[in-house]
Design goal:
The complex is a heterodimer of chains A (317) and B (214). By secondary structure, chain A is an all-alpha fold. Chain A is built from 11 helices and no strands. Chain A is flat, with a radius of gyration of 22 Å. Chain B has 214 residues and is of the alpha/beta class. The longest helix of chain B has 15 residues. In chain B, β7, α6 and β8 form a beta-alpha-beta unit. Chain B has a single domain, classed as P-loop containing nucleotide triphosphate hydrolases (Rossmann fold, 3-Layer(aba) Sandwich). Chain B is 31% helix and 25% strand. In chain B, α4 packs across α5. Classes of the chains: A mainly alpha (317), B alpha/beta (214).
Chain lengths: 317, 214
């Protein structure tokens, strides 16, 4: 039980308490809210909807940056776990690690989407998303609680006496897993897919094809993660056999991983959200620009490592 | 036009301060609401201003349901449509007369020149321009009230709500306020005054009296 894990436990306990209050209020709002009604029940529900939305907004606004703290915690634990070279060892130390990571990534997008939905709802006098946002929260509550349970199980299951696999084993081509297939896929296919997808995204941006742009952004997350592990990561480490998506979060690589993931997640989130919300033209342009700016920053950053390596060494890995 | 429909307001579960109230205030009308303390006059003004939400019923201003607006939009509606003269004036003592008067215009980001023109106009209309740079805490009760009236008018609202405007004034200053009220009436604003001051009870320029005691 490190101070970081203890902090996560305390915060999770607070999240569960407040989210449960918000869940009960959301259930009432979903069942009885009627915008046209002027009864005492409706006025009470309107007040409760502000309270509930505020609670949820704060929980999710803390949960999003807390993901970075979670990764930081894994890095710290990896220092005391025998065999672990980085977070990958901690994730792989228990049966829950990988599921937790996937769930956390999914929740990251969903929580951020809820914040956007709430912000759009509050911008309008008629609050067009009021029921939808509370219905969505009720589903997210289940995901939030599941995430907290799985996180607790993971931390409780870690035994610091057990020797765990390092990332070199977990992300190895010889491993018999989906990860090995991703890493083992031909580099030409991976890189072509990555850059082609980005070019199509630029076209969708120029033509302002909202739905296509959103779908491309969702695809870009997966392709980017796969190419980061399979190709670009090797240039960051300057080692052709090292495919870890965590090591570049460490001090030795100037914490560049945090920046790359922030670029990727912010860019694709804003891009993917475009088709999911009704917005003014001005807001749409803002979302397009933020998405392109961060996606471009990601693409240029990872590409720069490849080019710099080539200019320094006159060869490709 | 302000329409009050089946309005109820209670601050305690079992005690309704306002019960099934139905009133219509026409545009440009000057209405005096009479009633003793605790009869619900101020609460009604707060409900019209969107400062309070009803327990049930509706407040509709120019076809818009004010009572159903989310808080942020209530604030915008109040900023654009309502001028309030509070019983205790609610001025900021550490600011000058002019700074207090200009407060409602701050969110509009107007140019300094326009702010000055508008401040001069209302200060002159309510005879307070000679105290323009004076701190509010150094003013007399009547001057403070004129500052509050000027502040309520600076954004040129359609509706003026005055809550016990003469409660802290002597008779001479109260009569001066009534003269100001008469002047404001000529500007076709809807004015609602809540008071228990008998000086208001026999005014010939008041369009309507509403008794809240009953």
């Amino acid at each position: 039980m490190t101070p970081e894990v203890l902090t996560l436990f305390i915060l999770n306990a607070l999240f569960v308490i407040f989210a449960t209050v918000a869940f009960i209020l959301s259930l009432r709002i979903t069942l009885y809210y009627d915008k046209q009604s002027t009864t005492p029940v409706q006025y009470r529900l309107e007040k409760q909807s502000y309270l509930s939305a505020t609670i949820i907004k704060y929980i999710f606004s803390i949960k999003i940056p807390l993901f970075i703290f979670f990764i930081f915690t894994l890095e710290k634990i990896s220092l005391i776990l025998p065999g672990a070279m980085c977070s990958a060892g901690v994730v792989n130390a228990t049966d829950y690690g990988l599921y937790l990571l996937v769930l956390k990534l999914l929740n990251l997008y969903l929580f951020a989407y809820w914040i956007l939905l709430n912000s759009q709802d509050m911008k309008s006098e008629t609050q067009p998303y009021i029921k939808i946002k509370f219905q969505l929260f009720m589903a997210l509550y289940i995901l939030l609680v599941t995430e907290i349970i799985v996180e607790s199980l993971m931390f409780f299951s870690i035994d610091i006496k057990d020797v765990v696999d390092c990332c070199g084993v977990v992300f190895s081509v010889s491993d018999n897993s989906y990860m090995a297939e991703i890493i083992g896929a031909p580099i030409f296919v991976q890189v072509s897919l990555f850059y082609t997808l980005f070019l199509v995204m630029i076209l969708a941006y120029i033509k302002k094809l909202k739905r296509i742009f959103s779908i491309l952004n969702v695809l870009f997350v997966f392709v980017s993660l796969a190419t980061l592990i399979g190709f670009f990561g090797t240039y960051i480490y300057e080692m052709p056999t090292h495919h870890c998506p965590f090591c570049f979060l460490a001090h030795e690589y100037n914490y560049i991983g945090y920046l790359l993931y922030i670029f990727l997640f912010v860019g694709t989130f804003y891009g993917a959200s475009l088709a999911l919300l009704q917005m003014t033209q001005k807001e749409e342009y803002f979302y397009y620009r933020v998405s392109m700016l961060f996606n471009c920053a990601y693409l240029l950053s990872v590409s720069a490592y490849v080019l710099l390596y080539y200019f320094k060494n006159s060869l490709w890995l | 036009m302000i329409e009050i429909r089946n309005l109820c307001k209670s601050f305690q579960e079992d005690k309704e301060l306002i019960k099934n109230l139905n009133i219509t205030f026409k545009e440009g009308e000057l209405v005096v609401i009479r009633g003793k303390s605790g009869s619900g006059k101020s609460t009604l003004l707060s409900l019209i201003a969107g400062l309070l939400k009803p327990t049930s019923g509706e407040v509709i201003v120019d076809g818009k349901q004010i009572s159903k607006l989310p808080d942020h939009f209530s604030t915008l509606y109040r900023r654009d449509n309502i001028g309030i003269i509070f019983q205790k004036y609610n001025l900021i003592n550490e600011l000058s007369v002019k700074e207090n008067i200009l407060l409602p215009l701050l969110p509009l980001n107007l140019k300094k020149r326009e702010l000055n023109v508008r401040a001069e106009m209302v200060m002159s209309a309510f005879h307070i321009q000679h105290k323009s740079e004076e701190l509010v805490k150094n003013l007399s009760g009547g001057e403070q009230q004129r500052t509050a009236i000027a502040r309520a008018n600076i954004a040129n609202p359609k509706i003026i709500l005055a809550d016990e405007p003469t409660a802290n004034l002597d008779e001479k200053l109260s009569l001066a306020f009534i003269e100001i009220l008469k002047e404001m009436k000529t500007q076709s604003k809807s004015i609602i005054v809540a008071t228990h001051d008998p000086l208001f009870f026999e005014l010939d320029f008041v369009d309507r009296y509403i008794d809240f005691d009953s």
